[in-house]
Amino acid sequence: MSIIKGALLDLSGTLHIDKVATPNAVAALKKLRAAGVKVRFVTNSTKTSDERLYAKLTKLGFELDRTEIFTSLSAAKRLVQEHSHRPLLLLEDEALEQFTDIDQSEPHTAVVLGLAPSKLDYANMNRAFTALMNGAELIGIHRAKYFASSENTLSIGPGGFIAALEYATGKQGVLVGKPKKEFYELALRDIGLLDQPGSVAMVGDDVLADLGGGAQELGLKRILVRTGKYMANDEAKAEVPLDGTFDTFADAVDKMVSW
């Protein structure tokens, strides 16, 4: 029997790239479940709502329950609600659907920034700057430097835009997604393995955003895949050696079920 009881899986770049599943990923997920491994999906995807993300994954052929998906977008909304913020949301329209029940009137008390290529222009960044200078809190859904927009193309992520606002305002943003320890703990608690993190694998294509920070601090098994945003020798960037690096998610699963 495998020592792996649970798996936290990154989505974009690991299970799929844009609208294409990575090689044999659909079958690999079935294999992982058949081995009795409890699965949760942990993603910093912020370009679309959770419901649209779920629909996309099922269309690609993945078998999953909506409740198995933990997104940084949901974590950001939870933080906004907890503090009764009136946020300025720099998000794509499909992601804004998740915030229709949130008061977004001025004066804004928070700026929420995610991956939003159509919204991160000078005018909107200046609106965010003004709100922050007037006392709003900066909430970064994640700080990725770049992401895989297609199989062979990397594009700039939201991290640089968050850093620009921090530099201009002198404020430090609050991060809610990976690699925050608290984000992983939500998923671990849901699968009943919060007290056994060493029996849980985190699989992703980003050695820092997926496998650093909280994943390292909690003692998760940290597995890197050479798909998505992976670049040659990324594994060398890890502060603590990884538990494995594999060409694809499917290859990682083969190892996980026999560990």
Automatic annotation (TrEMBL):
Give the record's keywords alphabetically. Answer: Hydrolase, Magnesium, Metal-binding
Pfam families assigned: Hydrolase_6 (PF13344), Hydrolase_like (PF13242)
Question: Where does the record place the STAS domain?
Answer: 1-80
A GO molecular-function descriptor: metal ion binding
Q: Which InterPro entries match?
A: HAD-like_sf, HAD-SF_hydro_IIA, HAD_sf, LHPP/HDHD2, STAS_dom
Keyword Magnesium annotated: yes
> Record's superkingdom?
Eukaryota
Q: Which family does it belong to?
A: Belongs to the HAD-like hydrolase superfamily.
> NCBIfam families of this UniProt entry?
HAD-SF-IIA, HAD-SF-IIA-hyp3
Question: What is the name listed in the Swiss-Prot or TrEMBL entry for this protein?
Answer: Haloacid dehalogenase-like hydrolase domain-containing protein 2
Which lineage? Eukaryota, Fungi, Fungi incertae sedis, Zoopagomycota, Kickxellomycotina
